[in-house]
Design goal:
alpha+beta, 8-stranded antiparallel sheet, 4-stranded antiparallel sheet, disordered C terminus
């Protein structure tokens, strides 16, 4: 019920239909749990008030809570454990049952068990709820057993305890029955969390009596470590009061019931009745494979392992402090192809030394050897390597680098006007594997809109488990005209971030190509995705010497950014250990 309530609140707060989620899927369970951890709309997991708060948040009105319980109960039927409990009642082995549940499953199961016996031998239980507590009092005073007492009410009653205020105070007559029974019998707690303060208070009050729980107290739980503090405190007090206390771990109610009947002698007709209710065996004989497990991959990742990164860059000392954007403007004005990161009066750079000095002449630059790059510790080092890798990928390839603060990307370059035949043919040959994988044009115009589009990849350089990886996420880039908020005129926004379909239309002009993009990718399933990933991997790692260089400089000319990447994308493996890559393969 708690899981269902959380799902309803999650859908309500996120404007989702409940049909859009699956509360049995671990992925959705994790998302819902993470949402409640962030928002604190409900008490934390395991909090004694969690159930009541969730129920009241979804169904504020008592009549709606009763209807929810009624609808849920119609779907229920007695489980194996309840049939065992019912047979214990019918066989005279259990006199008194207290339950916080509203359903009629125990009495229904007992009715079925009694039907197996002669009329003279049947033991029909008295069922008492909040509205009929006097029945429980009569059974107690006259020792007229068996009794099934519903502490929180029966689903057919007007009074059902569900919310925090309802659970705060136990009905006095039902509390009296619980306390008096605890003074006469031992008690076994099965599947009870101890969340209800009123019930726990009543049980604790028994411990002040002269002979509490004379036949012992047994608390069944799936794990002793998960007992609530209120339960642990109660058991400790009971032990100090001289009660025989035992915490017994059992996985499920059904397993507990199976263990119980193996140690109790029931009449044969009841035993046979129980055996008919046993769950079907889940042990199915299978032929054990004798061949060795193959080392084939399970999932293919769109990521390339970076085997080596540049370890150092050129160090240039300036006569005055500056910033990276200012340096890039100087390089752009001088048409100097270089990659830089500035920090005050020092610059780390990849590129031609003399061209850099000339472009930065206004800042009195001097070569000062090299600077070590530690991308794991220094964000500026990771940034310059990130820029260099994207630049290296676009060298000698028909790809356009797009370096943005929102994320770097590469897109397929459109054919140039007046391109010579040799260049056109070389470009076509280079892109053929990619074109075959997509099975659609790599560049063109969006039908009906005319906006230029090109296939591309969003790139990310990150370290995972001590290894550097270049992740690439295929997407379709569209140059969408946007209004400039400062001038009110139109223009092309050349950012990968416009691919986000969640951007508010009134702020960013919406995404008029969104439907076309979604339709373009909707029919691309695993097989085509694998081909697209394979084609991009081949294009990015294509080189004659296995190295990817940003500029192709000689050592004496300057410091180049040289990368070596695996030619094979990452793969998941079977559970036994395998090396990720073998370049020879």
């Amino acid at each position: 019920m708690i899981r269902d309530f959380k799902a309803q609140i999650f859908c309500r707060e996120n404007k989702l239909s409940k049909r859009e989620i699956d509360i049995g899927d671990p992925v959705w369970i994790d998302r819902i749990d993470a949402f409640f951890h962030r928002t604190s709309l409900l008490p934390p997991d395991g909090d004694p008030t969690e159930y009541a708060a969730a129920f009241e948040a979804v169904y504020p009105q008592a009549r709606h809570r009763r209807q929810y319980i009624d609808d849920a109960i119609l779907k229920g039927s007695p489980c194996f454990g309840q049939k065992v409990l019912a047979s214990l009642i019918a066989g005279g082995k259990t006199d008194c049952v207290f339950t916080t549940n509203f359903d009629p499953l125990i009495e229904d199961a007992t009715l079925s068990a009694n039907a197996q016996r002669s009329v003279a031998m049947q033991r029909r239980p008295t069922v008492a709820g909040i509205d009929s507590a006097e029945r429980a009092l009569r059974c107690l005073n006259e020792s007229d057993w068996p009794l099934v007492a519903k502490l929180h009410g029966d689903y057919q009653e007007i009074s059902i305890k569900n919310t925090g205020s309802e659970l705060e105070k136990q009905d006095e007559r039902m509390r009296h029955v619980l306390v008096e029974a605890s003074k006469r019998f031992g008690m076994v707690f099965v599947g009870y969390s101890g969340r209800d303060a009123s019930v726990m208070d009543a049980l604790s009050s028994v411990l002040t009596e002269r002979s509490p729980f004379p036949n012992g107290l047994y608390w069944m739980t799936s794990s002793a470590s998960r007992l609530l503090p209120a339960v642990t405190e109660f058991l400790t007090k009971a032990q100090r009061a001289g009660v025989d206390v035992a915490v017994v771990e059992c996985a499920t109610f059904d397993e507990l019931a199976a263990d119980v009947i193996s140690a109790i002698d029931l009449p044969s007709e009841l035993h046979d009745h129980i055996m008919k209710a046993r769950p079907n065996s889940r042990l199915i004989p299978v032929t054990v494979p004798t061949s060795e497990a193959r080392a084939f991959p399970v999932l293919r990742y769109s990521a390339l392992m970076v085997e080596t990164l540049p370890s150092h860059a050129r160090k240039i000392v300036l006569g005055q402090s500056t910033t990276s954007p200012a340096v890039r403007e100087l390089l752009k004005a001088a048409k100097c192809r270089a990659i830089v990161a500035a920090n005050g009066r020092e610059i780390a750079a990849f590129g031609n030394d003399q061209e850099l000095l000339k472009a930065l002449s206004s800042l009195n630059p001097k070569l000062a050897g090299t600077v070590s790059l530690d991308p794991e510790a220094d964000s500026w080092a990771l940034g310059i390597l990130y820029d260099a890798l994207v630049t290296a990928f676009s060298r000698w390839r028909p790809l356009t680098p797009r370096l943005r603060r929102s994320g770097h990307s590469l897109t397929v370059s459109s054919p140039r006007e007046g391109e010579d035949e040799q260049r056109r043919r070389r470009r076509s040959e280079t892109l053929k594997p990619l074109r075959d994988a997509y099975q659609t044009p790599l560049t063109g115009a969006v039908p009906g809109l005319g906006y230029p589009f090109s296939e591309g990849i969003l790139l990310k350089l990150e370290q995972i488990d001590g290894r550097w990886w270049c992740g690439f996420d295929p997407y379709t880039h569209v140059d969408i005209p946007r209004l400039d908020p400062t001038t009110g005129t139109g223009g092309i926004v050349d950012e990968p971030s416009v691919d986000s379909l969640s951007a508010p239309r009134e702020r960013h002009g919406g995404d008029p190509a969104g439907d076309w993009r979604r339709e373009r990718w909707a029919q691309r399933y695993n097989k085509q995705w694998a081909a697209i990933i394979h084609a991009w991997a081949g294009l990015l790692t294509r080189s004659t010497d296995g190295e990817t260089k940003a500029f192709g400089l000689e050592d004496e000319v300057g410091v180049d950014a040289v990368f070596r990447l695996s030619e094979v994308t990452g793969w998941s493996r079977p559970s036994h250990h395998h090396r990720y890559f073998d370049r020879k393969k």
